[in-house]
Design goal:
alpha+beta, 5-stranded mixed β-sheet, 5 strands, 9% strand
């Protein structure tokens, strides 16, 4: 509990204490007036002892939270001979029932009920019969006891609900952290495969350049034009490898790769988007797609994998949370402006039935947000004012397309292989 919460609790407790003191004094004054006017208590030492006990009970009310059972027992005993302490006794009884275990509160409640007939027999009321006075006193005591049990049950229920909410929040936070770590590991595994491919090409062309530079006789070496072409191929491959590596900055690799396990294959890119769309339509989804195949064909592979993942997650969520609703997908962009992927579906009128509901970990969007952040983009999702659910992601797409592989790269590699064989 924070300092502010403790301060607020202390202020509320003082307010309730002041109210309880006022109640005890008010009840004591009413009992005092009734007792003196009806002659139940005559003016004398006993009357003033009774008044002193009532004032003492009112003064001790702020201590009822620290000594609930002791104060309830003491003023239940004093209730045999005192009347002005009745208000304070009821406050102490309520606190004891609310704070103490049932094994303690029930005997205290019984003792408080016993004091009513004893006091009524010692100090009879001339305006009411014995059983009337006893019935009123016992009913009042039982009402206070019932109120105390209700308050204790309500507090226990609220405490249980608060604990469950905090535990659920903690578990959700743990799931989010685990999803972030898993997404980082998956991206690292993708980079492992992609960079291995890029670097193997880089090594091949570097070998061709080295063999060509060492060629001695006529027809064995590479001329200056082909050497320049090989250098361009190497520079382009290095540029592509660095672009792929930039998406994995700050990502720690999974330990399973270090143990020699076989890495997973790279995630599909936008080249497989048509297959994803066809699968969704075959599954019965009413899907409308807006895309430019020529533009998407120029998307860098790293960005294409992220865009494919967003489209895949959006269609999956639409099938999971809005089965049967129309879905719209838009994939557009150009170098310099970035690539945007948007999946939009109508919100269902009600939650899907148990048969339609698909299981899920509720962390897919967390992984997408992590992926978009690592790629330098952004992710937005949520309901729209017109009743749709919108998932949108933007990824940076540089104007510099990098250096593409030169058309004579295969010839250079083939010639270097022939030179090595000779």
């Amino acid at each position: 509990m924070t300092g502010a919460e403790r301060s607020a609790l202390s202020e509320r407790r003082w307010v309730w204490d002041l109210g309880a003191v006022a109640l005890a004094i008010g009840v004591g004054v009413l009992v005092f007036v009734d007792s003196t006017s009806t002659g139940r208590l005559e003016d004398g030492p006993l009357l003033w002892v009774d008044v002193a006990i009532g004032l003492l009970g009112a003064c001790l009310i702020p201590l009822r939270h620290r000594y609930p059972a002791q104060l309830a027992f003491a003023f239940a005993v004093l209730g045999f001979v005192g009347s002005t302490s009745a208000g304070a006794g009821l406050v102490f009884l309520y606190t004891a029932v609310k704070r103490c275990p049932t094994i303690v509160s029930i005997p205290l409640s019984a003792l408080s009920c016993v004091t009513v007939p004893v006091y009524a027999s010692l100090f009879p009321d001339p305006n009411a019969t014995f059983w009337t006075a006893v019935s009123v006193g016992v009913a009042t005591t039982l009402a206070v006891v019932a109120w105390g049990f209700y308050s204790r049950t309500r507090e226990q229920l609220l405490a249980s609900l608060t604990e469950r909410a905090e535990r659920a929040e903690s578990e959700q936070r743990l799931r989010v952290e685990q999803a972030q770590v898993a997404e980082r590991g998956r991206i690292a595994r993708e980079m492992h495969d992609v960079l291995a491919h890029r670097l193997s090409l880089l090594s091949l062309h570097a070998s061709a350049l080295e063999v060509g530079a060492k060629g001695g006789g006529e027809g064995e070496g590479l001329d200056r034009e082909r050497l320049a072409e090989a250098a361009r191929v190497i520079r382009g491959s290095a540029h592509d490898a660095l672009e792929e590596l930039r998406g994995a900055i700050g990502v720690l690799r999974d330990d399973s790769l270090a143990d020699g396990a076989v890495p997973e294959r790279p995630q599909p890119s936008l080249a497989e988007l048509d297959e994803l769309i066809a699968e969704s339509r075959q599954a019965g989804m009413a899907l409308e797609v807006d895309r430019d195949p020529e533009t998407l064909g120029a998307v860098p592979p790293a960005i294409g994998r992220h865009a494919y993942r967003v489209a895949q997650e959006g269609l999956t969520n639409a099938r999971k949370h809005a089965p049967g609703c129309a879905v719209e997908m838009r994939v557009a962009g150009r170098p310099g402006d970035g690539l945007e992927v948007e999946v939009r579906n109508r919100m269902p009128l009600g939650p899907p039935s148990r048969a339609e509901r698909l299981p899920g970990s509720e962390t897919g969007l967390v992984g997408l947000a992590e992926r978009a952040a690592l790629a330098g983009g952004r992710l937005e999702h949520g309901p729209t004012p017109d009743g749709d659910f919108r998932l949108s992601a933007w990824f940076p797409w540089s104007r510099d397309p990098g250096v593409e592989a030169a058309p004579g790269a295969e010839a250079i590699a083939a010639e270097s292989t022939a030179v090595e064989q000779r």
